[in-house]
Amino acid sequence: MEVGYQVGQVVDRDSVGLQQQWQNQLEQFRASRDAGFDIYCWAHHYLIDPFQHFQPLPVLARLAAEPGNMKLATSVLLLPLMNPVDIAEQVATIDHISEGRFILGLGLGYRPEEFEAFGTSLKHRAARNSEALELMIRLWTEDEVTHHGRFFDVSNARPTARTYQKPHPKIWLAAMSDPAVRRVGREGHTLFIGPAQSYEVTKRHIDIYREELDRNGHPPPEDIVLLREFFCANSRTEALEKASAGFQRKYEVYGAHGFQGSNDELADIVTGDIETQTDSAFVIGSPQDCIEELARYRDLGVTQVAMRLYYPGMSQKETHEHIELVGREVLPELHRW
User: Fold this and answer.
1) What whole-number distance in Å separates Cα of residue 17 and Cα of residue 37?
2) What sign for the dihedral angle of Cα 69, 172, 111, 148?
3) What pTM did the predictor assign?
C-alpha cells in the first residue's frame, strides 16, 4: 500500500503568518519524505476563511525541486472552477518538472461562493468536470483538437505542452455520493474516496464502482484511493484526547461551509464526540489500532491511502512528532501489504 501525507485547508488565519505557514509546510514535506511517505497530497479551495491556504499547482511545482522521489498529487483540484486548456498545460508543465511524479486528483467542489467567484454554479459542476476532463485528455494525446461542447470550445487547437507520463498522469476522481461514484466508474477513472464516509458507505461505494466499471467495459481498477482523517498516539485514549479539539475545529468550519457529510456525523464531531466516528470514518488510536483499521480498507481493495496528520491548533513540534511516530510505527506495516 502506498501512503500519502495530506495537506488541507486547516490553518487558522490568526494562528500563524502566511510566510511562517509556508516554512512550516515545507518542513512538514521534508519530514514526511524522510519518514517514508510515498505521496504528498495538496488540497484546493478558494476563499476558505477563517482558514488560510496556498494553491496547489505552484506549491507542487516548488516541491518537485526538493530531493527525493515522493509523488506529488492534487488532492483534490476543483476542476469545475477551472479552464481545461489552462489546467491541461499546467499539469503537463508540472509533470515534466517532477519527471513523471505527478498525480492529478480531481473533485467537484461543494461551496457556492467558489462557483460564484468563478462565474459558474454548483448545478453545472458534474457536467463541467466530465467535459473538461475529456478535453484535457484529448489535448494530452491528440495532435490537433476541435471541441465544441456545452461549456468549452476550441478549434484546431495544437497543445503547447504534452505530459511527461504517457498517455497522461494518473487521474483520481473524488466521489462522495452514489451518483458520483457511478460517474467515476462509467468514465473508467480511479476512484478517490473522501474523508467522512463511513466504512460501510465506503464498502458500498467500492461495490458500485466495480459494478459500473464492468457495465461500461472498463477493466478492474489498478488502484482505489482513500482519504482518512488520522490521528495516532501511544494509546487510543491519548489519541482521542489529542485529536478532539483539532477535529472539532476543522469540522465546525467545514460544516459552516456546507461540507457534504451527514448531519448526524458532523454534529457528533462538532460537539466533540469524535469517538463515535472512530468506529465509522476516522482512523484514531494506537499504532496497532490504526494498522488494524486500515487493514479493513485494504481488504476492500484500497491500494493507496492519504492521511491528514495536522489539525487546527497543533504546534509544529507536535506535527513533527506525529509524522515521526507514524513513519516509525505504522508505515513499515502498510508498505508490506
Assistant:
1) 27
2) positive
3) 0.93
Is 265 inside any structural domain? no
How does pLDDT run across 280-332, given as a tens digit for each residue? 689 999 999 999 999 999 999 999 999 999 999 999 999 999 999 999 999 99
Domain count, the chain: 1
CA distances from 264 to 91, 186, 200, 276 (A): 38, 30, 15, 10
Residue with cell string 459494478: 211
Residue 85 belongs to a domain: yes
Domain that holds residue 307: 2-232+303-336
CATH of the domain at 74: 3.20.20.30
What radius of gyration do the chain's Cα atoms show?
Answer: 19
Identity at 137, one-letter amino acid code:
I
Q: Which residues of 78-108 are buried (b: 16+ CB within 10 A; e: fewer)?
A: bbbbbebbebbbbbbbbbbbbeebbbbbbbb
Residue 10, Cβ density class (10 Å: 0-12 exposed, 13-18 middle, ≥19 buried) = buried
DSSP-based three-state secondary structure for 46: coil
Label the pairing between strands 102-107 and 71-78: parallel
Residue 98 lies in a domain: yes
Residue 100 lies in a domain: yes
Among 178, 192, 185, 180, which residue's Cα sits nearest to residue 217? Answer: 185
Task: Judge contact between 42 and 59, C-beta under 8 A.
Answer: yes
φ, ψ for residue 142, nearest 5 deg: -115, 150
